[in-house]
Amino acid sequence: MRSGRAYDWRRERLSQASPPGRRVFKPSVLLKYRWSSKGNKLSRAKHEATGLSSAAEESIMKTIRESDWKVFKQVRETALQRFCQHVLDDVDAINRDAGLTAHERYLKVYELIHARDRKLGAAFDGLSRSDAAFRLMLIRTLGLVSEEDLARFSPELQQSSIPME
Containing domain of residue 1, as a range? Predict the structure, then answer.
């Protein structure tokens, strides 16, 4: 497959017998290309959750102090448990609604889980010190950080993680 020119892995063909004018790629090549592109899944989820531009995201995403990082890991775990409990409470409320059929309740639960899963992914997927301030802002936007938890952070991190409206 290699010729005198530079090898381009994106053009790697699945077989030589593909229809003329149509390229067929290996699935692993497509996944590698898709995840290496600039608009990856995580960035879209962050933007959908916050509505922030990438420039605003970058200004928030900075490395935090070691002491704040240790506190963040604890607060993040507590906030995750709170988030999941809120979702389970909402599911329970839908399940107790006697005015709906079983199928209608199922559809409402499905829609709720789907919507909340996107928020969960944006706020909690990936544990990185470089984007901890951004994640803290998302967690605060969801109302999952208590005042006591927030007081444990440095004043700089408290200020940089104020939820945007």
Answer: 1-37
52-71 burial: b if 16+ Cβ within 10 Å, else e: beeeebeebbeebeeebeeb
Per-residue pLDDT of the chain (165 residues; tens, 9 = 90+): 444 554 444 444 444 444 455 444 333 333 333 333 344 444 444 445 555 555 555 555 567 899 999 999 999 999 999 999 999 999 999 999 999 999 999 999 999 999 999 999 999 998 888 889 999 999 999 999 999 999 999 999 999 888 886
Q: Say how far apart CA 165 and CA 158 lie, in whole Å.
A: 16
Residues 118 and 61 in one domain: yes
